[in-house]
Amino acid sequence: MNDDKFDLVIIGAGPGGYVAAIRAGQTGMKTAIIEKEYIGGMCLNWGCIPSKSLLESAKLYKKIQSAEKFGINGVEIIMGSAEIVSANMVSVNNRGIKTDSIIIATGSKPAQLSLNKNNILQIESLLLEKEIPQKLAIMGSGAVAVELSQLFRMIDRNVSLLTGPDKLVPNLDSQIENFLIDKFKKEKIDIVKNFELKDKGILIDGKVVEFDLIINASLRQAILPTGSLALNLDKGFIQTDAKLQTSIPGIYAVGDVNGKSFFAHSASAQGLAVVNHLQGIRGEIDLNKYPINIYTHPEIAQLGKTEETLRTENIDFEISEFPLTANGKAMAEGDTEGFLRILFEKKYGEVLGVQIVAAHATDLISEASAALQIEATVFDVAKTVHAHPTVSEVFMEAGLSAVGEPIHK
Questions:
Q1: Which residue range forms the structural domain that includes residue 185?
Q2: Do the beta carbons of residue 102 and residue 87 sit within 8 Å?
Q3: Residue 53 has pLDDT above 90, yes or no
Q4: 3-state SS string over 59-117?
Q5: Within this chain, do residues 210 and 228 fall inside the same structural domain, yes or no?
Q6: What's the rounded Cα separation, in Å, for the pair 293 and 337?
């Protein structure tokens, strides 16, 4: 077995892995990225990108293939299944690869259903379906489950969202959760909290309910790499420290596989943070500043602390809320459903959390990300001039309302 030596080996070519590889190549590290099946991972092939636009998927795939045209050198793509031999050795296709550091970015997949039915569809196969039957069950919770539920209801399918006793989307503020529940009720999406999976089918209220198709969008489980090293796990996910290092020095885990977040942008940010750390570039990894984006209609976005978290931490806070019904651009476009909420510390006014329900919430949340990053106050938000008319003016309005100087409220 021939041995090659790299500065960094990344296992997994999803949003956490390939972004880390690009950054590592930019910093001059000799890097290998190993992927056994899908370059781009779930996000590129059947997840976040295809579900928004197949064209964007093709663009991204093409960009990855021609990465060296963009000045990204030193990254070798190796197709195959990786085995971690030691903290400094990875084996793939009977090839030994020596390395100074390893990043595990193998992602996650929905938990397997304990149900013996031939009409269960795994999420990665959804785009291969030519027809969607009338009576659907979406099994699971999280952004994907709620997005699919609304998608199929919008094309006139009968949809039941079979979720658990917890929130529809983990870590979502209760106010936003309640909005989503009310929205689904109005759209006649049946939210089922109590059900049982039996060999004979799905029991709801003690009765077997049949569905034409059951889509498995269950909460995800880590895809653990193979190898003889015993990494510490937490609820099935690879345990990491504040620098995303595992229990074995020199081995890091980013993205879904560490269970800290299940969003592609979070995985990418983690991958960049690890490479910067390896290169001696200082910086904090604050998952509290990574947004939750949900592509429902209207969209939902959340960043920072929730009401529940602030109360648990005994932080004295206030909330400023501004409705889209009072925003000129939203009224002109006919998209007035929604609101912006700013949670801020009472004494100094520091912005601690932002929640948006709006047609373009997933774009608007970037402004909140900047505010949290620089520890802005509601006074800063109120003074920030926004172009008129734009939906982004809701930030200024909520800021003005927070300091007792509302204009359009």
A1: 112-216
A2: yes
A3: no
A4: HHHHHHHCHHHHCCCCEEEEECCEEEEECCEEEECCEEEEEEEEEECCCEEECCCCCCC
A5: no
A6: 17
Tokens of 214: 């059951």
Of 288, 321, 348, the residue that ends a domain is: 288
Is residue 231 within 8 A of residue 247, CB to CB? The reply is: yes
Considering 216, 233, 252, which residue would you say is the last residue of a domain? 216
Domain-embedded: residue 252: yes
| Cα 355 → chain centroid | 16
Same domain, 200 and 172: yes
Whose CA is closest to 365, among 376, 354, 374?
354
Q: Is the per-residue pLDDT at 286 higher than 60?
A: yes
Residues 90 and 225 in one domain: yes
pLDDT > 70: what percent of the chain? 89
User: Is residue 143 within 8 Å of 246, Cβ to Cβ?
Assistant: no
- What pLDDT sits at residue 312? 96
Please say if the pLDDT value at position 137 is more than 50. yes
Q: Is the dihedral of CA 160, 164, 165, 168 positive or negative?
A: negative
Q: Which of 277, 297, 360, 388 is catalytic?
A: 388
**Same domain for 57 and 146:** no
CB atoms within 10 A of CB 331: 13
Residue 243 shares a structural domain with residue 278:
yes
Global pTM exceeds 0.90: no
Average pLDDT over residues 210-229: 88
- pLDDT tens column, 6-47: 999 999 888 888 888 888 888 889 998 888 877 666 655 555
Within this chain, do residues 42 and 69 fall inside the same structural domain, yes or no?
yes
Q: Is the dihedral of CA 294, 297, 303, 308 positive or negative?
A: negative
DSSP 208: E
- Does the annotation count 277 as an active-site position? no
Residues 171, 311: one domain? no
Distance linking the first and last C-alpha atoms of the chain: 71
| Structure tokens, 75 | 């990254």
Q: How many domains does the chain have?
A: 3
